[in-house]
Amino acid sequence: MRKDNGVRETPDWDDRYRKGFYDGADDPHDLLVRYGHLFTGRVADIAMGSGRDAMFLASRGLPVTGIERSWEGLRLAREAMAARGYSIGMVQGDAARLPFRSGSFQGVIVFYFLMREIVPDIAAVLDRGGILMYETFLKAGEDHPRNPAFLLDKGELPALFPGFEPIYYDEGFREHKGRVRATAQLVARKI
Ligand SMILES: C[S@@+](CC[C@H](N)C(=O)[O-])C[C@H]1O[C@@H](n2cnc3c(N)ncnc32)[C@H](O)[C@@H]1O
Fold this sequence. Notes:
The protein is an alpha/beta fold. It contains 6 helices and 7 strands. Strands 3-2-1-4-5-7-6 form a 7-stranded mixed beta sheet. The chain is globular and about 40 Å long. Helix content is about 25%, strand content about 30%. It has a single domain, classed as Vaccinia Virus protein VP39 (Rossmann fold, 3-Layer(aba) Sandwich). The longest helix has 14 residues. Bound molecules: S-adenosylmethionine. S-adenosylmethionine binds next to strand 2.
């Protein structure tokens, strides 16, 4: 789905999940594998998709609640959890209206989802001392057009979370399934 200027509009995620866009993508993101030990309590997964990262946290015995708008993504997540015997909380809903109380999580993860207007809400659901993990695309280096509204500027991600102390931050080009993509990765603690 493209506008006249070649920029993609918001994707139809139900359709993508139905067509197998994420088939086989069950592995957690590397950043989570590297820094997952920092999570010690309740974790929220914002826009959890089919649950690859939530499953990893659940496999470590952490209580996880995911929010996701796509019913199809949630259906896949539910199947995958059941197959592995994990139980996590799943909320079908719009991340623009996070249904979580302030300070109710010790961790929040956000992978490949950007909605700048809810950044203060994401920060608010974390308890003081809680860990934020965020990874998504940068505007640089895209090998195909994407809606720039969903892409980060260089240096933007840590600046979006001023009340946080960075533990790890990196921007760079990474290869994923034979394609090079530019991403930003942030792990930070709420002060
Ligand atoms: C690129 S996928 C990332 C999924 C997952 N975090 C991952 O990395 O595997 C983006 C996800 O955001 C979800 N999404 C898009 N807009 C949303 C919204 N307003 N509220 C909740 N989820 C949304 C889509 O349905 C999709 O599952």
